[in-house]
Amino acid sequence: MTDTIQELLRRRAEDPCLALLYEEEQWSWREYVEESSRRATALIAAHDPSRPFHVGLLLDNTPEMAMALAAAGLGGFVVAGLNTTRRGEGLARDTRHADCQIVLTDREHLPLLQDLDLGGARVIDVAGAEWHDLVSTADPSAAPVVEVQPQDLFMLIFTSGTSGEPKAVRVTHEKVALPGVYLVQMFGLTSADRLYLAMPMFHSNAIMAGWGPGLVSGAAMALARRFSASQFLDDLRRYGATYMNYVGKPLAYVLATPPRPDDAENSLRLAFGNEASDQDIDAFAQRFGCRVQDGFGSTENAVVISRVPGTPVGSLGQPLEGVKVLNAATGEECPPAKLGLDGEVLNLDDAVGELVNTAGAGQFAGYYKDEAATAARMRGGMYWSGDLAYRDEAGFVYFAGRTSDWLRVDGENIAAAPVERLLLRHPDVNRAAVYAVPDELVGDQLMAALVLRSGARFDPAGFTAFLDAQPDLGTKMWPRFVRMASDLPSTATNKTLKRELIRQGVDAAGDPVWEREPRGTSYVSR
Q1: Which of 20, 430, 431 is nearest to 218 (CA)?
Q2: What is the SS3 assignment for 372?
Q3: Are the C-beta atoms of residues 198 and 244 closer than 8 Å to each other?
Q4: Of the given ranges (43-57, 198-212, 263-277, 492-506), which has the lowest mean pLDDT?
Q5: For residues 98 and 56, is the Cβ–Cβ distance under 8 A?
Q6: Which residues of 122-269 form beta strands (DSSP E)?
Q7: Residues whose CB falls within 8 Å of the CB of residue 470, separated by 6 or more in sequence, listed in order
Q8: What is the pTM (predicted TM-score) of this model?
């Protein structure tokens, strides 16, 4: 039978080994479970039994955040991760949608909630006297609300919102416990390890790839309040971290910092996450002397693809059984990609389709209070991810972008992700985003926003020569506009917000933009 978070924590109730590190503070597992039990009892006493027992957490990666998560596991109630970068009505909407009757926050984030309609939620400052009194008088041995089962709801985690309003994913106890067990076994994590948790704990990556493995293995968890590329190496050394999880572009951010001669002199042996480029995976592993294992997944956790030995450059890896690339219009499986002599995809229109778990929902337990969105994902008893991809003859999967990432350039369909992979080959490019801007006549023009590595400058002639030297770059894939961005708009989980780039248009204020001649290959400044 699958463990629950409740059971995993109970097993640690007498464990004297280190559990939490935060700046100059630390807690053993015994202390962590006891303090979390106090908070569970305090919240049980404070909650209104006539309303859903949902507690919103508007906190960074602090001890109070880690203890509130454990309190929910022990107490058998539900927590909702509230995105600390959300503002105004968006934040209020998330709080109301998640049916939060209590919101735990701190002095930094408390002003964000002022004058918002939170649906009657009681806001408690975890640094204030009210919370101190509730916790200090609570009995850590008090019984939980319920004895939970693996399928019971533990947390509501909002999607990143890169393609629309965030949706609240239902995260059950087993949805945290199962990946925890899997990762501990795959990577051989033990209580001797120290896990560096810098990704936001209101998001699935930190919960399933960081906190969950900590509960299963008994390893100590070192909390970084927020991810900081400049503080990264100092944190590794400070905490003696041996493992880290990541999502989005943090490897690229770290690699953009000036290298040090002693970068590899650290304790890190493994970085696990998703969405890093091949170039960043190799460069990060070499620079910091560790192994980087990148995979593919989402908060819904219904489509899983893993890198295996022999995974080609640019590929996500091999999918689990049942995961296929289907044509959304016909429901038929797309044919494998036909590659030219230089590796270019010759049948992109036919080969690209949507990644689908044809075996069912996987670990997807639906969206909270959003039957329409759940039904849109679960069509015909299969999970449709909204991610575009294609497969080669050997079955390896290549990401092609979101379903909104199709561009129609001069009558030809172009997928954004393959172009981004090509641009990242340029030695001066740290990050790249490809998206559509309107063509002056019909369809789209392809625009690329590039963030260059520290100290690099854009050389238009050199960029033209680079593109011309890429044998698998089709003529329609050449960017019409190239923006030299100081940074890319992103979510709290380091995912690029392309809709914001699209909104900013061709002449983005403050950033230089270069334009390619309509029928040529040279770039001139706009």
Answers
A1: 20
A2: helix
A3: yes
A4: 492-506
A5: yes
A6: 122-125, 153-158, 168-172, 194-197, 220-223, 243-247
A7: 422, 425
A8: 0.88
DSSP label at 211? I
145 DSSP 8-state letter? S
Q: How far is CA 308 from the centre of its chain?
A: 21
User: What confidence tens digit (pLDDT) does each residue in 501-516 have?
Assistant: 998 999 877 899 999 9
Cα torsion 373, 376, 377, 379: sign: positive
User: Smallest Cα–Cα separation from 350: which of 285, 415, 424?
Assistant: 415
Query: 16: helix, coil or strand?
Result: coil
- Give the DSSP H or E segment for 292: strand 291-296
The rounded distance, in Å, linking the Cα atoms of 496 and 180 is: 27
Structural contact between residues 381 and 414, judged by C-beta atoms closer than 8 angstroms:
no
Residue 24, token pair as written in the block = 């100059």
Task: Look at residue 408 and tell me whether its pLDDT is greater than 90.
Answer: no
Residue carrying the six token digits 């079955």: 395
| Cα gap 470→475, rounded to integer Å | 11
* Average pLDDT score over residue span 344-369: 93
CA 208 – CA 7 distance, rounded (Å): 16
The three-point CA angle 305-310-311 to 5° equals 35
Distance separating the N- and C-terminal Cα atoms of the chain? 63
Q: How far is CA 422 from CA 164, 343, 488, in A?
A: 27, 12, 18
Residue 459's SS3 state is: coil
46/55 Cα distance (integer angstroms)? 11
Q: What is the pLDDT of residue 143?
A: 66
Rg (CA), the chain: 24
Beta bridge partners, 274, equal: 247, 295
Residue 450 tokens, joined:
């590039």
Give tens-digit pLDDT for 47-97.
999 999 999 999 999 999 999 999 999 999 999 999 999 999 999 999 999
Nearest CA to 171 out of 152, 147, 184, 144 is that of 152
The torsion angles phi and psi of 326, rounded to 5 degrees, stand at: -115, 150
Nearest C-alpha neighbor of 485 from the set 413, 429, 410, 525? 429
Give yes or no for a contact between 248 and 230, defined as CB atoms under 8 angstroms apart.
Answer: no
pLDDT in tens, 163-210: 567 899 999 999 999 999 999 999 999 999 999 999 999 999 999 999
Secondary structure, 3-state, 296-354: ECCCCCCCCEECCCCCCCCCCEEECCCEEEECCCCCCECCCCCECCCCCECCHHHHCEE
Closest CA to 345 of 439, 244, 477: 477
102 phi and psi angles, rounded to 5 deg: -135, 140
Sequence-ordered strand ranges (E) for 392-462: 397-402, 406-409, 412-415, 429-438, 444-452
Pairing of strands 78-81, 54-57: parallel
